[in-house]
Each structure stands twice: as C-alpha cells, then as structure tokens.
C-alpha cells in the first residue's frame, strides 16, 4: 500500500470545529482541481506546492505510521489527512488504511480522536466509514470548480449523521455567498457549516454581516489561526 506524501508534521488544527487541537498533519500530494484560477484571477489554493503527484514522495503505510508515532508517541493528537487531495487516485486507499489502522489501535487502547479527519475537496466520493471524519468543501462559482462537485456526497453526509463532520464554503464574493445559501436550502444541509473568506478578496467582517442576515443552520466563520500565528509559512 503506497501513496504520495508531501509532508508529515505536527502543529495545531488551524480551522473549523477542531481549531486549536494538537494535530498530526499528513499532507498528500496531488489534486486535480485548480481553485480560483480564471482568465483574469489567480489560483487561491494555499498549498500549490502539493498539487502535482510528483510533489510528494512515494511512501508505504508502515513508514507513515512510524512517522506519525514519532511525532505523537502517546496517540493523543488528532490526525488530519489533507493535501492535495487525500481521496484522489492511489491516495484514497492509503488514506483508508492509515485511518483504519489508527481507529482500531486507538479504540482498543481507549485513546482520544480514534477517527482521522479528512479534508476533501468535494469532487471525490466520501464514505460511511466510521474511521473517517470529514471536512468537505463545496466549491462555489468563484472557484471555477463547482461543476466538479459530487452532489451525492450530501446524501452520504446525511446518512453518516456524524456531529463532527463539516462542510466548508470558501467565499470569493457576494455571488458565492448567495449560491451557498441556495445549496444549503436545496440540499437541506444539517451538517456543521464553515465560512471562510478568500484572502484579499472578501473582508471577513463583511462576510460576518452576510452570515448574520441569512443565519444558515449550524454555521460559523472559520479563519485560519495558523496564519494569524505564523503567517504564510509551510509546515506549521
Ligand atoms: S481542492 Fe484544495 S488542494 Fe486542490 S486546488 Fe483547490 S484548494 Fe488547492
């Protein structure tokens, strides 16, 4: 079992409902989306260094588990599988194996955070597996990637009924925000909802005003705390 890994490191979770929790990040290389890139606008992806599969090293399951345990010998940290895209191509089976192994060990040993959180871009099918918790993006029109979204994922989230799952909307402008409200209504979303502004394009305070007016269920503003603490550095 192999996959392409860009980096493995420990820090705190930067966003969402797990913000601030000590976390081991397993960053996969390879993502077929290109968020935000249009004829006139720039890619907004904050991990451009992990977009190509060749931007990672081929690693087997055993060596990844070894690296996780070197950073978290007592198995007390949350595990975050991120990217790139951890559910794309050969990374998908490796993500499952990592999460399944840790879930089984941590459950048996009564450790915290048995399930691994997966940050996924919404274009890959999520699963009902209990060893995963999902932070799933829904890409809005401003990303140029909305037609790549797999709408069946909303039904899977409903079936999972996991209070730790979350859906993330990254908002570039007012059109994006209005589309998010439509999607929430059309899909009858009950999962936690995160709103993040595209840096430099939407003022977070303006986004708060929009959220206050529509007040979608279970929603919150999510700013990236690691950028507040360390700026645009990698591996923190
Ligand atoms: S899906 Fe994520 S990793 Fe892929 S281009 Fe978009 S922001 Fe970057």
* DSSP strand content: 15-25%
CATH T-level fold name:
TIM Barrel
Tell me what the CATH architecture is. Alpha-Beta Barrel
Taken in chain order, the helices and strands follow as EEEHEHEEHEHEHEH
Uncertain ranges: none
User: From the structure provided, what is the oligomeric state, counting identical versus distinct chains?
Assistant: single chain
Number of domains: 1
CATH class call = Alpha Beta
Report the principal-axis shape.
globular
Question: CATH superfamily membership, which one?
Answer: Aldolase class I
| Residues in helix, % | 25-40%
- Given helix and strand content, the structural type is alpha/beta
Q: State the major sheet.
A: 9 strands, mixed
How many beta strands in the DSSP annotation? 9
The chain-level mean pLDDT equals 95
Number of helices: 6
Folded structure, characterized:
The chain has helices spanning about 60-70, 90-110, 150-160, 175-185, 205-215, 225-230; strands at about 1-10, 20-30, 55-60, 80, 115-120, 130-135, 165-170, 190-195, 220. With about 240 residues, the chain is an alpha/beta fold. The protein has one domain (about 1-165): TIM Barrel, CATH 3.20.20. Strands 3-1-2-4-5-6-7-8-9 form a nine-stranded mixed β-sheet. It starts with a strand and ends in a 6-residue tail after the last helix. The relative contact order is 0.15. The model has no long low-confidence stretch (mean pLDDT about 95). Iron/sulfur cluster binds near residues 33, 34, 45, 51 and 84.
């Amino acid at each position: 079992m192999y996959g392409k890994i860009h980096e493995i490191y420990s820090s705190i979770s930067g966003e969402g409902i797990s913000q601030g929790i000590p976390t081991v990040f397993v960053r996969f290389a390879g993502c077929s989306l290109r968020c935000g890139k249009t004829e006139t606008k720039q890619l907004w992806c904050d991990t451009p260094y992990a977009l190509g599969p060749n931007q990672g090293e081929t690693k087997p399951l055993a060596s990844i588990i070894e690296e996780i345990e070197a950073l978290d010998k007592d198995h007390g940290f949350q595990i975050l599988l991120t990217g790139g895209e951890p559910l794309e191509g050969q990374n998908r089976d490796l993500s499952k194996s990592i999460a399944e192994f840790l879930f089984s060990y941590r459950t048996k040993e009564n450790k915290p955070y048995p399930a691994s959180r997966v940050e996924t871009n919404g274009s890959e099918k999520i699963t009902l597996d209990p060893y995963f918790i999902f932070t799933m993006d829904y890409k809005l029109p401003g990303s140029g990637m909305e037609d790549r979204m797999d709408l069946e994922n909303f039904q899977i989230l409903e079936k999972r009924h996991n209070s730790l799952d979350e859906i993330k909307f990254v908002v570039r402008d007012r059109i994006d925000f209005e589309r998010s409200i439509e999607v929430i209504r059309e899909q009858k979303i009950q999962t936690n909802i995160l709103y993040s502004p595209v840096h430099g394009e939407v003022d977070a305070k303006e986004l708060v005003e929009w959220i206050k007016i529509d007040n979608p269920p279970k929603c919150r503003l999510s700013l990236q705390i690691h950028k507040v603490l360390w700026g645009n550095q990698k591996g923190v």
